[in-house]
From TrEMBL:
Organism the protein comes from: Niastella vici
Protein name as catalogued: JmjC domain-containing protein
Superkingdom of the source species: Bacteria
């Protein structure tokens, strides 16, 4: 269950607003590759390493390859059948170090693991990196495609992807947790192409004499802009946690909005076959197609432009409620079969908002519904002004006894209604029990 966050900030924590200001100066506002040494303490590295292994364990326990979990032997990506036989049954044990896990499961092997969307599978990692990044995001804003975590684990030598360039606009910060070090090689775009290079270029040795080398060790932070051709070299066992800033193109963003409209407003279960049209001057089929659209009062009379803006605003509300993370966390229902309707356990508990995440909300135009954006999930509930009061109190960051928090609502609604509302937030990982 979601309980009090016991990760203690290190005494030598350095990642503050002032630190980010200096970072932006050194990398010339995200345009130059840099290494900043000795940022993370040993405690930071140990704690974050455990968080990354928690994410791997979650993937192994689910035994599902649709979460973009990749395992490499050398440059060969192993298939799902291999993972089910050789990786998923042997997850990292709670408290087990990377070195101990590697010796137990991969003795004498060179291996590599790449796990995307680490923010989804390790709540503590999302909270920790979210706190680190918050001052920077307050300064520069949240990328419209969000931020995300990719985890690199292993001693695989050169990155199995070959020399490559990341997606346009997607800059990356690498937090190196060790224990071993890593080297990143960079090439400028024009020079690399003149040398005959291209995306996923595998003849690394041919290009190394022309590269700029950036070695870094445990506790260092490495930053690289998206447009550098690059490859990493990890001959020693290590973990790298990367924070991505996904500044996508306008074309990609409009496609995301169209996809969002499909998911929210179009019946995805309908499989009715369309009928042929008989008369171009009397087309009948659109009425049947339009029936799939789930209109509500807030969108029914909007123009196309207004509808897209409405969808964009909702999308950004959800993104902001998740601290910028692109992937919403696993709900407690997904993780431990939590039942939102069984809220009695919250009676008399002390709860608090999960930092650094803030609830966002809006009220329907007819004042009948309240929409709460919690960790990138949209919760719909009947409106009452006291629900806003509860949200604002939680957003203060203070802790509250649940019964006291819902007391104002309980004057007009049953106390159970307030506890049910808190249960919805708890399931989506918006609040935590601290006592």
């Amino acid at each position: 269950m979601l309980t009090k966050n016991e990760v203690i900030a290190s005494a030598d924590q350095k990642i503050t607003a002032a630190w980010w200001n200096e970072f932006l100066l050194q990398c010339k506002n995200f345009t130059e590759t840099i290494v900043i040494p000795d940022v993370l303490s040993d405690r930071d590295c140990t704690d974050m390493s455990m968080m990354t292994l928690d994410a791997v364990r979650e993937i192994c326990n689910r035994q599902a390859g649709n979460y973009d979990f990749r395992y490499y032997q050398g440059t060969e990506a192993m298939d799902e059948e291999y993972l089910k036989k050789n990786i998923y049954p042997f997850p990292p044990m709670p408290g087990e170090t990377l070195t101990a896990w590697a010796e137990r499961v991969f003795p004498g092997q060179k291996f590599g693991i790449i796990l995307n969307y680490g923010e989804k599978f390790s709540p503590l990692l999302a909270e920790t990196l979210g706190r680190y990044a918050a001052p920077l995001l307050q300064k520069i804003g949240i990328p419209v495609n969000g931020t995300c975590i990719t985890i690199f684990i292993g001693n695989y030598g050169y990155t199995p992807l070959g020399i490559h360039q990341d997606h346009k606009g997607e800059n990356v910060i690498h937090f190196h947790l060790g224990p071993g070090g890593k080297v990143m090689y960079n090439w400028e775009v024009d020079e690399f192409k003149k040398l005959g290079g291209h995306q996923n270029f595998m003849d690394v040795q041919k290009m190394l004499p022309y590269a700029t080398e950036f070695p870094f060790k445990k506790g260092d932070i490495f930053y690289m802009p998206w447009n550098k051709f690059h490859i990493g070299y990890s001959d020693e066992l290590s973990i790298g946690v990367t924070l991505w800033f996904n500044n996508i193109t306008r074309k990609k963003m409009i496609n995301k909005l169209i996809n969002s409209i499909q998911l929210q407003y179009i019946d995805q279960e309908d499989d009715t076959i369309t009928k042929p049209e008989k008369d171009i001057n009397d087309l009948q089929g659109f009425k049947e197609i339009e029936a799939l659209i789930k209109y509500d009062d807030d969108i029914q009379n909007l123009t196309v432009g207004q509808f897209f803006k409405h969808t964009y605003n909702e999308y950004m509300q959800a993104l902001y409620s998740n601290g910028g993370w692109r992937a919403r966390p696993l709900s407690l229902e997904q993780e431990v079969n939590y039942n939102e309707n069984e809220f009695e356990h919250l009676h008399g508990k002390v709860i608090q908002r999960v930092s650094p995440f803030i609830f966002h909300y809006k009220i329907s135009s007819d004042n009948n519904k309240l929409f709460v954006y919690c960790r990138a999930s949209k919760i719909e509930i009947n409106y009452h002004p006291e629900l806003i009061n509860i949200i604002e109190k939680l957003n203060s960051g203070e802790s509250f006894v649940t019964n006291d928090l819902v007391a104002g609502l309980a004057r007009e609604w049953p106390e159970e209604a307030g506890l049910y509302f808190l249960s919805l937030l708890y399931n989506k990982r918006g609040i935590q029990i601290i006592d």
